[in-house]
C-alpha cells in the first residue's frame, strides 16, 4: 500500500509517517518508481508507535524499545527489560513532578481569585 493508504488506515498523516521513517521507526520498501510501499505489518507498527507516543515516550526512546512492543488480543503492551523499566520509571517521576507543580499553581490561582 502507498503512504496515502497507510495514512487513511491508521489516521496518521503522511507527514507523520515520513517523520517516523526519518526517525528509523518505519522502513518501507520502495517501488521501482521510488514510491514508499507499506505492508499490513506497518499498520500494526504505526499503532504501536502511536501508543508509545501517547504514553509520553519520544521517538528516540521508541526507536530503542520498539522491539519490546507486542500487540495482542488485549491491545498493545511492552515486554519489560531493565533498561526499559528504568526509562518508564523516569518518565513517571517527571510526570509526577509536573503534576505536583500544576497542583501548586492551581492552589496559588485559587488563593488569588478567592482573596477578593
UniProtKB/TrEMBL annotation:
Keyword check for RNA-binding: no
Top-level taxonomic group: Bacteria
SMART domains: HTH_MERR
Record-level Gene Ontology MF annotations: DNA binding; DNA-binding transcription factor activity
Coiled coil (UniProt feature): 85-115
Residue intervals of the HTH merR-type domain: 1-68
Protein's UniProt keywords contain Coiled coil: yes
Pfam families: MerR_1
Keywords associated with the record: Coiled coil, DNA-binding
Name listed for the protein in its UniProt record: MerR family transcriptional regulator
Organism: Streptomyces roseolilacinus
Amino acid at each position: 500500500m502507498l503512504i496515502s493508504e497507510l495514512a487513511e488506515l491508521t489516521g496518521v498523516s503522511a507527514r507523520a509517517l515520513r517523520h517516523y521513517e526519518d526517525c528509523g521507526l518505519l522502513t518501507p520498501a520502495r517501488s521501482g518508481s521510488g514510491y514508499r510501499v507499506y505492508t499490513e505489518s506497518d499498520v500494526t507498527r504505526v499503532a504501536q508507535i502511536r501508543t508509545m507516543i501517547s504514553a509520553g515516550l519520544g521517538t528516540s526512546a521508541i526507536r530503542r524499545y520498539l522491539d519490546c512492543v507486542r500487540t495482542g488480543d488485549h491491545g498493545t503492551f511492552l515486554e519489560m527489560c531493565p533498561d526499559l523499566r528504568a526509562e518508564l520509571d523516569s518518565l513517571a517521576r517527571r510526570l509526577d513532578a509536573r503534576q505536583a507543580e500544576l497542583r501548586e499553581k492551581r492552589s496559588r490561582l485559587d488563593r488569588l481569585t478567592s482573596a477578593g
